[in-house]
Amino acid sequence: MRSYLFRRLAQTFPVAFGVVTVVFLLIHLLPGDPVEIMLGESAVPAQKEELRRELRLDRPILVQYAEYLSGISRGDFGVSFRSREPVLREIAGRFPATLLLAGTSLAVSIIVALPLGVLAAMRRGKAADLLSGFAAILSLSVPNFLLGPLLLLVFSVQLGLLPVSGYGTARHLVLPAVTLGLGMAALLTRMVRATVLEELRKEYVVAATARGRSRRAAVALHALRNALVPVVTVLGLSFGAVLSGSVITETIFSWPGIGRLLMQAIDARDYPLVQGCVLVIALCTVAVNLATDLLCARLDPRMRYD
Amino acid sequence: MTEIPGALALLRRTARRPGAAAGMALLAVFFLVAALAPEIAPYDPLAQSLDEGLAGPDRAHWLGQDRFGRDVLSRLVYGARLSLAVGVGTVAVSLLAGILLGALAGFFGGTADRIFTRACDVLLAFPGILLAIGIAAVRGPSFGNVLFALSVLGWVGYARVVRAQVLKVKAMEFVEAARAVGSPATRLLATHILPNTLSPIVVEATFGVARAIVAEAGLSFLGLGVSPPAASWGSMIGEGRHFLFVAPHLVAAPGAAVFLTVVAFQFVGDGLRDALDVREDTR
User: Fold this and answer.
1) What domains appear along chain B, each with residue ranges and CATH number?
2) Under a CB-based contact definition with an 8 Å cutoff, are residues B180 and B133 in contact?
3) In CATH, what is the architecture of A87-299?
4) Residue B251 and residue A262: Cβ atoms within 8 Å?
5) Rounded to two decimals, what is the model's pTM?
């Protein structure tokens, strides 16, 4: 396991390095002078010069890059152009809300997908299977910027059951978490169905049922456990999508997380903060992918020798 | 390896599945509506009538009016042009880059392949539309910038599929035979290998258009898509959500259009996958 860990770490560092490089280049994609865009046309030359110095844009690009890398390695993501706070402190203040939302959405998707996927596999070709397949296609085709307003309309406006927006109580969490979790639940349902079906065909399940175990017990005790690796992989890979999807979901429900912070930074043309948010979400994705691989290798030792 | 049949034969084979046939019919309608927008739209999509702002559907305006009193149906019809153009355009640009880079990496291997694989790994570390949000945010809202932002990541999926296919096909006997009789590398790649790698690409591209339409709608929803007052389905949903409680029709119409288009592309993609007998193999 240790050599697998080192091998995966060795693969992850160049990716993280590449991610930092791409994010550094973002500000250089600005059409025209970034300083002029941030300050607007009415800014006087002295103000522009000061901001240029502050953002270190007055130096050669390679020097800027070296300084950016060295700053990131020390946890210095720059200073927010609007609030004058360190970018990392601003992000850290919002991150718990995003983690709470992402974690709850993952929980929602597991709670929906596991029973539905197993049921569909056990009743293959019957009404439950067809219905779950149809539900999966339906929720995969409804993007979260559509599902969010739809849920708001039904549960907040028509039924008055849940708050429209805000943060702080469990009731505030329901709609954003369902919005973010349902699409993933659809993907996961399909995956659970496929893997359980595959496991059900294997000889050890046949042997278990031949020994007198019920089909339900064979699924619960054997097939589900072996179906765990692909499920964990999909969950891990989906975490990045959840973080990215949180930008839209947090905007719809005014959820005070990193996604909303990113949109506020974009509106304020606070590019150091935009860079910081994009970088943190991408690096979190890289870290979760690594953790997923390690967890899978722990669950299925064969993966360590691939 | 599967051969690509002629376009007409492929369409006929795909249309044998009822879902795919329905999807193709629906897409034909959407593309027709987009092409004939100036003839079909009952009003100028930009014409404002402020005193009729947020009016609900009636006989004169079948899908109601937005906050500026603009006709929602006309904006929906013109929005089809932008949304479908971004979807098809993004896939076209991504395909071009993806086929070129994937083929070169798969065919030549070595350092080129290693650089290619690392670049893909880095870009795939940006989940969903995050990188597109970053790019669109710094470049500003416009059709070209959306196309650029979505294509920066869009090519990776196609390139990986092409690379995997090229690796598989280049080891086949007919390629060895062509190499043995002295075919130069460019001819080997262009006439022998690439045509035999296209089946999974056709399927992937069909799903890709749906993904690009959703991504554009997501960017426009956030205000990072096409620049106002032009309408895309996403920007209509984005504007409409602010009036969700008083005028839900503003979200319902473009929302249904996005949903139906995505479902249609998915059904057609599934049909094509069956017709071409493509199995997923991107390793």
Assistant:
1) 16-40+62-282 (1.10.3720.10)
2) no
3) Orthogonal Bundle (1.10)
4) no
5) 0.88
